[in-house]
């Protein structure tokens, strides 16, 4: 079925009909932004805007981020996560301000209504000159840098389209505040590992892989493997699956962008549940999230000038959120 902007809305249970799949081929990361016709940008901007004002999530296909780069990253990350804890501990995250490094199993608590998540993760800076190297997994560093760079290019395009979709005079309104490749910016690439759920695993009541939360920054690019379990909250309050759609990236609005746009774009809560049935719980699940944040010193205040929310500095906002999530 087509919605009124021409984007395809999948009506089977893959996305429960709520999350559009948009063909990003005309503006994929191999294109040169300046050469792309304004009509193409306006069309894509309108499609994305509709998704971000309704459900806050969209699948993009033909985005141009090479599948081989994702596969390589997932494979290197898996090798890392399967190392013994005492090795991984050398790379453990240290503080909320830094927001980098390894978070061990059951470290992160995204909702106070649930126990810690059944997952491990590793956060990287998005800058290529990133300092951490992994003697134990020599290819990990390069795979992260390579993938990050593609995500950066896709993010720039999306931030431009978001500005156009909002009808802003200046399409660089957001990109100017997202100097992702500089030290002024705290965007991160996160590799996530949800180990197999085994009968001997000590699980607490209500414990799931990743508890209900919304993301903190501007937008998130999420690449998931084929295991499933991701769910998002509809406006009526129920959680529905956001199933893996091969070769797509799932993009969502995060909290600071919702605030920036005075709730026009919605930051939707989501979670990762343990798939039902022994077959799937024996599988580990992996995903990669690229969290796009505005520059640390950027003061986010409503673009419509109505000040629905008081202005807040990006770093102040994200530090409070990280402190709430991790027990330091
Ligand atoms: O692993 C996933 O699919 C989702 C992870 C997520 O939502 C997050 O890390 O913010
Ligand atoms: Fe999230």
From TrEMBL:
Q: Ranges for the Fe2OG dioxygenase domain?
A: 185-294
Q: Does the keyword Protein transport apply?
A: no
MF GO annotations: metal ion binding; oxidoreductase activity
Q: Which domain of life is it from?
A: Eukaryota
Recorded protein name is Fe2OG dioxygenase domain-containing protein
Its ancestry begins with: Eukaryota, Metazoa, Spiralia, Lophotrochozoa, Annelida
* Similarity comment: Belongs to the iron/ascorbate-dependent oxidoreductase family.
Keywords annotated in UniProt = Iron, Metal-binding, Oxidoreductase
Organism of provenance: Ridgeia piscesae
Concerning PROSITE patterns, the annotation shows: FE2OG_OXY
């Amino acid at each position: 079925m087509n919605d009124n902007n021409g984007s395809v809305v999948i009506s089977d249970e893959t996305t429960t009909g709520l999350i559009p799949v948009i063909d990003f081929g005309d503006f994929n990361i191999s294109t040169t932004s300046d050469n792309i016709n304004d009509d193409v940008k306006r069309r894509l901007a309108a499609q994305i805007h509709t998704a971000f004002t309704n459900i806050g999530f969209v699948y993009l296909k033909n985005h141009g981020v090479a599948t081989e780069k994702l596969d390589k990253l997932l494979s290197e990350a898996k090798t890392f996560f399967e190392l013994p804890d005492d090795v991984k501990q050398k790379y453990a995250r240290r503080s909320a301000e830094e927001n980098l490094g390894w978070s061990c199993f059951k470290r992160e608590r995204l909702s106070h209504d649930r126990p810690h998540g059944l997952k491990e993760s590793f956060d990287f800076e998005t800058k290529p000159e990133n300092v951490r190297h992994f003697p134990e997994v020599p290819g990990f560093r390069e795979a992260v840098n390579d993938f990050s760079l593609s995500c950066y290019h896709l993010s720039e395009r999306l931030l431009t389209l978001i500005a156009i979709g909002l009808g802003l005079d200046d399409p660089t309104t957001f990109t100017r505040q997202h100097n992702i490749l500089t030290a002024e910016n705290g965007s991160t690439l996160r590799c996530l590992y949800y180990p197999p759920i085994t009968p001997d695993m000590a699980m607490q009541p209500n414990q799931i892989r990743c508890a209900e939360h919304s993301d903190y920054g501007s937008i998130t690019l999420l690449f998931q493997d084929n295991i499933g379990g991701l769910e998002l909250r509809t406006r009526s309050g129920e959680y529905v699956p956001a199933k893996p759609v091969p070769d797509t990236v799932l993009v969502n609005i995060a909290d600071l962008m919702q605030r920036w746009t005075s709730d026009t774009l919605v930051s939707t809560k989501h979670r990762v549940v343990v798939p039902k049935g022994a077959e799937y719980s024996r599988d580990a699940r992996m995903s990669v999230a690229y969290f796009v944040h505005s520059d640390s010193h950027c003061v986010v205040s409503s673009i419509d000038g109505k000040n629905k929310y008081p202005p807040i500095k990006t770093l102040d906002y994200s530090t409070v959120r990280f402190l709430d999530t991790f027990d330091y």
